[in-house]
Design a protein that fits this description.
Radius of gyration: 24 Å
Helix content: 55-70%
Strand content: under 5%
Oligomer: single chain
Structural class: mainly alpha
Number of strands: 0
Distance between the termini: 84 Å
Shape: flat
Number of helices: 12
Low-confidence stretches: 225-234, 276-283
Largest sheet: none
Order of helices and strands: HHHHHHHHHHHH
């Protein structure tokens, strides 16, 4: 199945995304459709894609197919927007830069929403194209935080399954290399909750510094700036990173204190200079 076979033509495509100019043809959109579909394959394996794309209107997978078509259409228009704006600027109906950015923002938000819903739908129907047999699905089952909804409980990401996929490698690395080694064999419920919160804060801190602003969910990027640039935002990134890391370090310190109390120690790591261990007198 070719990527462009997902839609019957331009009229079908327009049912899933808005903002097409009158002169746009399906052939002009085809390269953007191919790019989006090929970009999905690291996230959604070919077997899952084929199972959804080949579903009939009355099939039990029909809802999943609708979500797939919405995700591809909104992503394709986001890719195509620069060409649409360029064509418009060659006519009497010119666009200002801020209008171009607002249109891109609209398509970006629509694509994120569609991807979130598609991934949530797949998790609710894990047998689709053997989604539950993919490496990503298997990896998530070994982690303490397994979905965007669960991540959102510890740090607000708008419950984004799409963002959770993007940071899954950071979740795995941070858990295996930093959080898990510091925990005792039986951490208990309270320490486990602290560990999950620490994991999520550290992952977001890393993502803020490593990802482009456009790769962050709205809940995070609107935290410190509305601009969609990368190079000019390092000061804002640094501030947010430091805030996140300070909270992470506080959570780690709480875990260490709980471990010390459980083992009968009165001083954490032998540090007599912590604020908790200082005594102030009046002379």
């Amino acid at each position: 199945m070719k990527p462009t076979d997902l839609f019957f033509g331009l009229s079908d495509f327009q049912c899933y995304a808005d903002g097409l100019t009158a002169e746009t043809t399906y052939e002009q959109l085809a390269p953007s459709i191919r790019k989006v579909v090929l970009g999905l394959f690291p996230l959604i394996p070919a077997d899952v894609y084929v199972a959804l794309a080949g579903a009939g209107d009355s099939d039990e997978l029909a809802d999943g197919k609708e979500l797939l078509k919405t995700a591809v259409a909104t992503g394709a228009l986001l890719e195509y927007q620069i060409f649409a704006s360029t064509k418009r600027n060659g006519t009497d109906a010119s666009l200002y830069k801020y209008q171009h950015e607002e249109i891109k923002d609209h398509h970006r938000e629509a694509h994120w929403t569609a991807m979130d819903r598609l991934l949530d739908w797949l998790d609710a129907h894990p047998a689709t194209g053997e989604w539950n047999g993919t490496d990503e699905y298997s990896q998530r089952q070994q982690l303490p935080v397994r979905s965007g909804t669960e991540f959102d409980h510890y740090y607000g990401i708008g419950g984004s399954a799409f963002f959770f996929h993007k940071v899954l490698f950071l979740v795995r690395q941070t858990w295996e290399r930093e959080i898990k080694p510091m925990l005792p064999a039986d951490p208990g419920e309270k320490m486990t909750e602290l560990a999950k919160e620490a994991l999520c804060y550290k992952v977001v801190a890393l993502a803020v510094m490593q990802f482009d602003v456009t790769e962050l969910p709205r809940a995070i990027r609107y935290d410190y700036n509305h601009e969609y640039t990368k190079g000019s935002q390092m000061q804002g990134r640094d501030r947010l990173y430091n805030q996140l890391l300070a909270h992470y370090n506080s959570l780690v310190a709480s875990i260490e204190r709980m471990k010390a109390l459980a083992s009968g120690k009165t001083v954490v790591d032998g540090s007599h200079n912590d604020e908790d261990h200082k005594y102030y007198g009046v002379l």
